[in-house]
């Protein structure tokens, strides 16, 4: 099984009114229950939109308040699913898109390190691809 991040950008869920918000919330809850019942749900949620509460912790440990200055877009919400294939992740993303009424981005997590394999297969290849 492989974990996938399914996310949408902040502002993508632009509702006409509160009634539409309630409809989307109900559809999202139904999709979440379906994912839980299917055993693929890992975690998910919406992110608070107030970037004044965002903080960045640098590699040197210095904390800076406010959003990361180079970011033009921010994640508005996400789910993590643990599924057998990318195709299955895309199927769940389609369900999310229908429920949330907005496009979803799908990204695969790198394998988790273990005691026996601290640098799992794919990590070095991913590093090399990003550097080229």
What is the topology?
Blueprint: E1 2-9, H1 18-38, E2 41-46, E3 55-57, E4 63-65, E5 75-83, H2 86-100, E6 105-108, H3 123-131
Antiparallel strand pairs: 1-5, 1-6, 2-5, 3-4
Helix pairs in contact: 1-2
Backbone CA Rg: 17 Å
* H and E string: EHEEEEHEH
Strand order of the largest sheet: 2-5-1-6
- Mean pLDDT score: 87
Helical fraction equals 25-40%
| Apparent shape | globular
Q: What structural class is derived from the secondary structure elements?
A: alpha+beta
Distance between the termini: 28 Å
Question: What would your notes on this structure say?
Answer:
- There is one protein chain.
- Helix content is 34%, strand content 25%.
- The chain contains three helices and six strands; from the N terminus they run E-H-E-E-E-E-H-E-H.
- Helix 1 (18-38) packs antiparallel against helix 2.
- The chain is globular.
- The strands form two sheets. The chain has a four-stranded antiparallel beta sheet, with helices on one face. It has a two-stranded antiparallel sheet with strand order 3-4.
- The model has no long low-confidence stretch (mean pLDDT 87).
- It is α+β, with helices and mostly antiparallel strands and 132 residues long.
- A hairpin with a 5-residue loop joins strand 3 (55-57) and strand 4 (63-65).
Q: Top keywords for this entry?
A:
alpha+beta; 132 residues; two-stranded antiparallel ribbon
Short précis:
This protein is α+β, with helices and mostly antiparallel strands and 132 residues long. The protein has helices at residues 18-38, 86-100, 123-131; strands at residues 2-9, 41-46, 55-57, 63-65, 75-83, 105-108. The chain has 3 helices and 6 strands, in the order E-H-E-E-E-E-H-E-H.
